[in-house]
C-alpha cells in the first residue's frame, strides 16, 4: 500500500483493520492515562515482586563485561515542586537503588540534561555504591558554537569527572552528531583536535569505550562509520523503535529510518545503544484504537512493554535506554527485562503492521527532550506540542464543525490546553525567531508547528472549522 493510500484510508476501514470492538476498547482504556508510559500491569506491583537475579544481560565484545539490557537514561530525573525546580535527590537515590538491586548497571547522562544538573545528581546517587557495580555513560555536549573551542570542550569533558565523582568514564559519547551536518562535526570535534584528544584519553584508560550518539544528517553518520578503522568506535547510540524502523523519513524527511542505522552497525559488528525506544513517550501514549489493538493481544502487559521488547529483541543491541522519572516506569521496565521475552517473527510483523496503522494519526515528532528550552519569549514549547499529540491520540482534533464529536472534542482540546499550558506560554506568543529550531534533534520546524496549532486554536474558539 502506498503512503498516499494509507493517509486517505477511511476511518471505518481503519477500525475494521484494527479489529478492535467496543468491549476491547473499554478494556484497553481502563487506566490508560497513567503517568508517562501508558497502561501498565505493574502499577500495583512492588519491587519485591520482581526477581533481582533475572535481568537480561548483553556482552560488550571489547571488554567482555556484562551490561544490563535495560539502561537508565538520566535525562528526566524527577524534580521538586519548588521555585527553580531543583532535582529531587532523595527520589533519585531511591530509583537508582532499586535499579541496581534488580540488575540495572548502565546509567546514561550528559552535561546538557536536566538543565545541567543531571551529572551531579547521578554522581551523588551512584557514589553510594561500589564503583564496579555500574557503568557510567556521559557525553561531550558542546552544542553551542561558544563551546566548540578546544579549551571549552576539554573544560566540559573534565567537569564531567568532577560532577560524576569518578576517575574514568565507562562509555563516552560525542553528543548528537549529525545536528548541524558536517560543518558542525568539523567545528565541534575534528578541526579543533578534540576527537584526537578523546582517542588518546581512551588509550590512557580514562575512557573505557568511545562512541557517538546520532541525530540528523546521514552524511555525518556514514562518514564516521566509513572511518571506523581509524576511530574504532566501541559503540554507537541510535534512535530505534518499531515506528522509526521504516517510517522515520515519512515522519520527517531529515530523519533516517532505524532499519538503515542498525543495519550499518550490524555490518561492522558495532554494538548499538538504543535511545528513544518509546519516542519520548509517544509509543506509550498512542491513539486509543492502537491501545485497544495491543491490549487485545497482550492484556496483561503495558503498551510501553511492546516497544521495549521490540528494541531488546535485536541481537546487536547492547542496552536500551529509558528515562524513568517515576518508580512505576522503572518497575514496568524491570518486569519486561527480568528476563526479556524476545518477540517472535510474527510479533515483530504485528508491530510493523501496527506502525503502519499509527501513521493514519500523525503526531508531531516531539520527544520532550526540552533541548528547545528555554524559549526567549517564555513559550512552553514541549507542553504545547505534547498537548496537541495527546488530543490526536484521544480523537479530540475535530476536522470540521459538522463532525459528530465536534462539541465534545472542541471543549476537551481548549480546556486541556489552558490546563496544560499557562496562557502567557501558549503558541500565540511565538514570534518565529527560530532559535529553537537549531536545537531540535528531531528537526521539527517548531515555529511552523506552533503557528499551525495557534491557528487551529483560534478556529476552535470561533467555532469556524
Walk me through this protein's architecture.
The chain is globular, with a radius of gyration of 22 Å. Helix 3 crosses helix 13, helix 17 runs antiparallel to helix 18 and helix 17 packs across helix 19. It starts with a helix and ends with a helix. It is built from 19 helices and 10 strands. The strands form 2 sheets. An 8-stranded parallel β-barrel has the order 3-4-5-6-7-8-9-10, surrounded by 6 helices. Strands 1-2 form a two-stranded antiparallel sheet. Strand 5, helix 6 and strand 6 form a beta-alpha-beta unit. The protein is α/β, with parallel strands linked by helices.
SSE inventory with pairings:
Elements: H1 3-7, H2 11-18, H3 22-29, E1 57-59, E2 66-68, E3 70-73, H4 89-101, E4 106-108, H5 118-127, E5 135-140, H6 150-164, E6 169-177, H7 181-190, H8 194-204, E7 207-214, H9 218-226, H10 228-231, E8 235-239, H11 244-251, H12 258-267, E9 272-275, H13 288-297, H14 303-313, E10 317-322, H15 327-337, H16 345-358, H17 381-393, H18 406-420, H19 446-462
Parallel strand pairs: 3-4, 3-10, 4-5, 5-6, 6-7, 7-8, 8-9, 9-10
Antiparallel strand pairs: 1-2
Return the structural class. alpha/beta
Largest sheet: 8 strands, parallel, barrel
Amino-to-carboxy terminus distance: 31 Å
Strand content: 5-15%
Count every beta strand, where a strand is a DSSP E run of 2 or more residues. Answer: 10
Radius of gyration: 22 Å
Query: What number is the mean pLDDT?
Result: 87
Task: Specify the overall morphology.
Answer: globular
Keyword list:
alpha/beta; two-stranded antiparallel sheet; single chain; about 475 residues; about 45% helix; eight-stranded parallel β-barrel
Amino acid at each position: 500500500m502506498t503512503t498516499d493510500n494509507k493517509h486517505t484510508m477511511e476511518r471505518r476501514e481503519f477500525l475494521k483493520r484494527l479489529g478492535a470492538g467496543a468491549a476491547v476498547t473499554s478494556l484497553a482504556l481502563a487506566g490508560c492515562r497513567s503517568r508517562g508510559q501508558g497502561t501498565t500491569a505493574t502499577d500495583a506491583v512492588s519491587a519485591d515482586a520482581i526477581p533481582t537475579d533475572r535481568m537480561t544481560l548483553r556482552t560488550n565484545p571489547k571488554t567482555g563485561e556484562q551490561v544490563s539490557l535495560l539502561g537508565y537514561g538520566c535525562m528526566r530525573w524527577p524534580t521538586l515542586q519548588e521555585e527553580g525546580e531543583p532535582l529531587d535527590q532523595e527520589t533519585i537515590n531511591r530509583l537508582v537503588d532499586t535499579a541496581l538491586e534488580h540488575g540495572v548497571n548502565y546509567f546514561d547522562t550528559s552535561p546538557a540534561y536536566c538543565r545541567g544538573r543531571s551529572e551531579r545528581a547521578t554522581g551523588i546517587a551512584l557514589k553510594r555504591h561500589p564503583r564496579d557495580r555500574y557503568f557510567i555513560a556521559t557525553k561531550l555536549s558542546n552544542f553551542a558554537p561558544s563551546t566548540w573551542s578546544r579549551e571549552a570542550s576539554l573544560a566540559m569533558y573534565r567537569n564531567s569527572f568532577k560532577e560524576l565523582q569518578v576517575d574514568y568514564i565507562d562509555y563516552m559519547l560525542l553528543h548528537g552528531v549529525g545536528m548541524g551536518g558536517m560543518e558542525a562535526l568539523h567545528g565541534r570535534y575534528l578541526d579543533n583536535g578534540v576527537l584526537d584528544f578523546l582517542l588518546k584519553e581512551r588509550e590512557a584508560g580514562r575512557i573505557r569505550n568511545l562512541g557517538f550518539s546520532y541525530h540528523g544528517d546521514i552524511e555525518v553518520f556514514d562518514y564516521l562509520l566509513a572511518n571506523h578503522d581509524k576511530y574504532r568506535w566501541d559503540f554507537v547510540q541510535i534512535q530505534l523503535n518499531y515506528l522509526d524502523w521504516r517510517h522515520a523519513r515519512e515522519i520527517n524527511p531529515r530523519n533516517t529510518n532505524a532499519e538503515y542505522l542498525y543495519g550499518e552497525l550490524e555490518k561492522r559488528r558495532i554494538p548499538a545503544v538504543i535511545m528513544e525506544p518509546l519516542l519520548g513517550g509517544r509509543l506509550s501514549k498512542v491513539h486509543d484504537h492502537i491501545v485497544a489493538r495491543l491490549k487485545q493481544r497482550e492484556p496483561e502487559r503495558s503498551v510501553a512493554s511492546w516497544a521495549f521488547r521490540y528494541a531488546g529483541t535485536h541481537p546487536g543491541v547492547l542496552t536500551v535506554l529509558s528515562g524513568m522519572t517515576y518508580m512505576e516506569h522503572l518497575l514496568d521496565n524491570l518486569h519486561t527485562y527480568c528476563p526479556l521475552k524476545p518477540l517472535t517473527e510474527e510479533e515483530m510483523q504485528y508491530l510493523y503492521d501496527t506502525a503502519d496503522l499509527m501513521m493514519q494519526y500523525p503526531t508531531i515528532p516531539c520527544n520532550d527532550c526540552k533541548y528547545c528550552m528555554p524559549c526567549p519569549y517564555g513559550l512552553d514549547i514541549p507542553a504545547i506540542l505534547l498537548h496537541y499529540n495527546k488530543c490526536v491520540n484521544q480523537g479530540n482534533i475535530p476536522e470540521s464543525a459538522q463532525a459528530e464529536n465536534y462539541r465534545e472534542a472542541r471543549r476537551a482540546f481548549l480546556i486541556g490546553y489552558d490546563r496544560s499550558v499557562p496562557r502567557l506560554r501558549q503558541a500565540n506568543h511565538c514570534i518565529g525567531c527560530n532559535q529553537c529550531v537549531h536545537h531540535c534533534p528531531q528537526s521539527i520546524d517548531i515555529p511552523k508547528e506552533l503557528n499551525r496549532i495557534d491557528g487551529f486554536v483560534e478556529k476552535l474558539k470561533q467555532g469556524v472549522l
